[in-house]
Specification:
332 residues; alpha/beta; Rossmann fold; 2 domains; 7-stranded parallel beta sheet; 12 strands; transcription corepressor activity; CtBP; Phosphoglycerate dehydrogenase-like enzyme; NAD(P)-bd_dom_sf; NAD
């Protein structure tokens, strides 16, 4: 039997964590490319049975150009760079690596939230400027028991962050149309429709996938309906926020502070207005990182490929309907 070809379309990690060795030990050939566009993927992955994708775009045209591809393993949690509907229609399974960095991202989220809610950036800047002004530089600090946090999305990361903030004494509202109010209440939290949660929140943290429906979930119109001085944290996907609207809301004071780890364009352009916006904390899509997560991510993505090609279950397949597609490209 011909060894199946696995093409890593792109990877910007300092190490593959032994992923290539794992794939070769399972009888696969491995090629590593440096793709960004769908056309580059189509050219680099000719003859491939499986793809491992970090950021490269995989659209319907690329899938049509790669008729032998049966499986796509996303190197990460989100998969908005892959046209999942097109993959499903062509019988191609898509899986992500959903739990390799839950602790890291949830902790990063909470750290950002607490930094904003306790006015740490202003206090630290004041000290460096030679001031000793706890009440002036820390004027935005809050009491947890009098503060409401809205968590938008109650998946692994959102739920972990919600529980941590609840344990710190904050009132936590959760908005997720795919999670029952009973399940949220069982966690000791309050369920609320999105706009109701946003209207009550002193801080909003986003944890929902980026889709056509959620793109610019926080746009200028919605930001204007929120509490004056609201804080915003986004460690999920940059496209959830209209960045230009956020810059304007920060400048005008409608948003009192924000902390972002993700951006509409990454790396963040040098001329981005976000770099000069007031009361804004920026980190370079680093919430996922720890040495343990760095080692685990590529290995998990490779393990998904090995399991699929061996006809073993892959629990993280995001489009189980692929099997019902006419001419599904299933393992043999």
């Amino acid at each position: 039997m011909t060894e199946p070809l696995v093409v890593v379309t792109d990877i910007d990690l300092p190490s593959d964590g032994g992923a290539a060795d794992l794939l070769r030990a399972a009888g696969c050939r491995v090629e590593v490319a440096a793709c960004t566009t769908a056309d580059e993927v189509a050219a680099a992955a000719a003859g491939a049975t499986a793809l491992i994708v970090q950021w490269a775009n995989v659209d319907a045209a690329a899938l049509d150009a790669l008729p032998e591809v049966r499986f796509i393993s996303r190197l990460g949690i989100g998969y908005d760079m892959i046209d999942v509907d097109a993959a499903t229609a062509r019988g191609v399974a898509v899986a992500n690596t959903p739990d390799y960095c839950v602790e890291e991202v949830a902790t990063h989220t909470v750290a950002m939230a607490l930094s904003l809610l306790r006015a740490l950036p202003g206090l630290e800047a004041g000290m460096r400027a030679g001031r000793w002004a706890p009440t002036a530089d820390g004027s935005g600090a809050v009491r947890p028991s009098e503060t409401t946090v809205a968590i938008v999305g109650f998946g692994r990361i959102g739920s972990s962050a919600a529980l941590a903030l609840r344990a710190a004494g904050f009132r936590v509202l959760v908005s997720d149309p795919f999670v029952s109010a009973e399940r949220i209440a069982a966690a000791g939290l309050e369920a609320a429709p999105l706009d109701e949660a946003l209207a009550q929140a002193d801080l909003v943290s986003l944890h929902t996938p980026l889709t056509a429906e959620t793109r610019h979930l926080l746009d200028g119109e919605r930001l204007a309906t929120m509490k004056p001085g609201v804080r915003i944290v986004n460690t999920c996907r940059g496209g959830l926020i209209d960045e230009q609207a956020l810059i304007a809301a920060l400048a005008g004071g409608q948003v009192g502070g924000a902390a972002l780890d993700v951006y509409e364009d990454e790396p963040l352009p040098a001329d981005s207005g976000l770099r000069h916006a007031p009361n804004l904390m920026l980190t370079p899509h680093a919430a996922w990182f720890s040495p343990a997560a760095l080692a685990e991510l590529p290995r998990r993505a490779a393990e998904n490929v090995v399991a699929f090609l061996a006809n073993h279950p892959v629990p993280s397949i995001v489009n189980p309907a692929y099997v019902a597609s006419a001419g599904a490209r299933q393992p043999v």
